[in-house]
Amino acid sequence: MTTAQPARTGLLLGIGAYVSWGILPLYLKLLKGVPALQVLAHRILWSLILLAAIVLVLKRGKAIMAAARGRTLLLLCASAALIAVNWMVYIWSVQNNHVLEASLGYFINPLINVALGVALLGERIRRGQAIAVGIAALGVAILAISGGGAIWISLALALSFGFYGLVRKIAAIDALGGLTVETLLLAAPALAVLLQASGNGTAAFGVDRHLDMLLILAGAVTAAPLLMFAAAARRMRYSTLGLLQYLAPTLQFAQAVLLFGEPLKPVHIVTFALIWAGCALYAFDSVRASRTPVAA
Fold first, then answer.
1. Alpha-carbon span 232 to 293, nearest angstrom
2. What does the alpha-carbon distance between residue 12 and residue 241 come to, in Å, rounded to a whole number?
3. Cα–Cα nearest to 155, from 170, 168, 136, 169
């Protein structure tokens, strides 16, 4: 039975993870002069160094190598590609003043997860969840038809992370092992990007000490929230953790409007109102379902 102390620790870790993801645009804005592909490459390589150190300290190397074989390795190749696309689109969207559309993508993501679970895993869906997905889909359709925003960003982020979560759900490896292998798989292309940039004189690293430190920090910025999330998931109810996920896009939305001055058009207001209504209904339905006693 879950005790109060682990649950409280899990709650703090979960909040830490989602707040870290929520304020990520502030960090990426500091790297505005660095090409998005180079930011992605640094994020991968410095994350790998940090993760390798953690694996060595915990003596998890052999266990990870044993798990990352056959079908699991193929699944991790797919998840690595998906998370790379997700990171690339997100970095580009922040650097090009589309944080509003990025936040919309992460509001949609939980509902995409429900749809993928039903369509691909044969999961049963409650009526409240079906209505929530329908309301959110209506919001996305209105924005797409109106041309009121870069809807491709929202859909690319929601779908790439949704499918990433689906692949990781069926891959037989834990969070640390999976993230380490994914990062290792992406290391060679990332290194190639940085070597090419260095060769043609466009490399951002090595020009300014302050910028170098920010790029090195990309490892901790990437790995820390993922590890906090994994630790939180082991210590608290997953339904509660699921509700915390709305912290990140809410913070991103606030930054887009209040700090970055991105225009909030009427169609955005309608779309977000429908998305928030869908998310609220989904959250309410999840909480109600978690509190309903299961018949013996």
1. 24
2. 11
3. 136
Element (H, E) at 281: helix 266-291
Instruction: Supply 210's token pair.
Output: 């302050």
Alpha-carbon span 109 to 230, nearest angstrom: 18
State the amino acid at position 69 in one-letter form. Answer: R
Please give the structure tokens belonging to residue 92: 């580009």
- Whole-number pLDDT of residue 292: 65
| Interatomic CA distance for residues 70 and 157, integer angstroms | 28
CB 14, CB 229: distance < 8 Å: yes
- Report how far residue 294's alpha carbon sits from residue 255's, in angstroms, rounded to the nearest whole number: 42
Closest CA to 248 of 117, 91, 99, 135: 99
DSSP state of 293: P
- DSSP-derived secondary structure for 51-110: HHHHHHHHT-HHHHHHHSSHHHHHHHHHHHHHHHHHHHHHHHHHHTT-HHHHHHHHHHHH
Tell me: pLDDT of 296 over 50: no
Can you tell me the distance from the alpha carbon of 203 to that of 87, in angstroms, rounded to the nearest whole number?
A: 19
Q: Which of 9-13, 147-151, 236-240 reaches the highest mean pLDDT?
A: 9-13
Rg (CA), the chain: 20
Reading the block at residue 221, the tokens are 């910025």
What confidence tens digit (pLDDT) does each residue in 195-248 have? 999 999 999 998 899 999 999 999 999 989 988 887 887 777 766 677 788 899
The structure tokens listed for 46 are 């410095």
Quote the tokens at residue 36. Answer: 């998005």
CA dist 186 and 192 (Å) reads: 10
* Residues in contact with 162: Cβ distance below 8 Å, sequence separation at least 6, in sequence order: 109, 112, 113, 115, 116
Reference 102, options 44, 180, 164, 24; nearest CA is 24
The per-residue b/e assignment along 28-55, b for 16 or more CB within 10 angstroms, e otherwise, is beebeebbbbbbbbbbbbbbbebbeeeb
